[in-house]
Specification:
CATH class: Alpha Beta
Bound molecules: nicotinamide-adenine-dinucleotide
Number of domains: 1
Distance between the termini: 60 Å
CATH topology: Rossmann fold
Shape: globular
Oligomer: single chain
Largest sheet: 7 strands, parallel
Order of helices and strands: EHEHEHEHEHEEHEHEH
Amino acid sequence: MFSLAGKTAIVTGAASGIGAATAKRFAAAGAKVVLADLREAKELAQEIDGRAVVCDVADEAAVEAMIHDAAEGDGLDILVNNAGIGVVGQEIAETAASSLDANLRVNTYGAFYGVKNAARYMRNGGAIINVASLAALVGFPAYIGYSVSKAGIVALTRTAAIELGARGIRVNCICPSTVDTPMNDTPDVAAELAFVRIATPLGRICDADECAALIHFLAADDCRFITGQALVIDGGVHAGFCETLVGAVISAAMAGNDT
Ligand SMILES: NC(=O)c1ccc[n+]([C@@H]2O[C@H](COP(=O)([O-])OP(=O)(O)OC[C@H]3O[C@@H](n4cnc5c(N)ncnc54)[C@H](O)[C@@H]3O)[C@@H](O)[C@H]2O)c1
């Protein structure tokens, strides 16, 4: 069950966070993994008997070469378009177009180049998993460039699922809320992390291994009738207003009334 034995998989952004956790999990399930990242993930590649490749996903020619090489020989079965950045922090009125461009170049174009070239080089019956974000589906102040770039990934996922369905290639994306990875290792996000914990019914932020498990689920042949989906992994945030959030808001409102 959920074996990836005999499969070749590419994971972009595999040097860190969700990508590294996915590469490890895929290898443990039997896949041969190509770890593509701006930084060479040499040690991890050695640890899991995979292959580290330096690749900028915002560079179409580099992505094509990387996918072509990975597919040569045994063919390509799985592509995880995970590499991403978050240029955030300003409300729309203050946001320069260059900030949107930066997010789009890596997040949306990067996934687009991946899907485009996987369509050329992937074996029929393969699986593509794109890493979007809850920010694609839910607005968050000062996240405009990132949100737009991730919403583009949801649209890309649905269109690709329709176009590649005839070849049995499934395309899905995952939409995580905040995940405990180096992407959030900055002092600026401390307040956001505190808010997400309070707003999450499960009371904590997501773990990279939990995202890797969902990606593994979607990559496996066991899930061969699931395609075109944007699967939310958020500890229940999207379901509604949890007690801790309502309690915090009411306490703040009551404190405001007292003064
Ligand atoms: N951490 C979160 O809270 C969170 C939430 C939702 C979605 N995501 C998404 O998950 C994905 C993985 O992020 P993470 O949290 O593991 O972050 P991370 O910073 O730990 O890892 C991102 C990896 O992508 C690589 N990368 C960045 N730009 C690249 C490029 N142009 N080409 C190739 N590689 C590149 C980095 O070198 C890094 O190894 C991203 O797409 C991110 O947007 C993250």
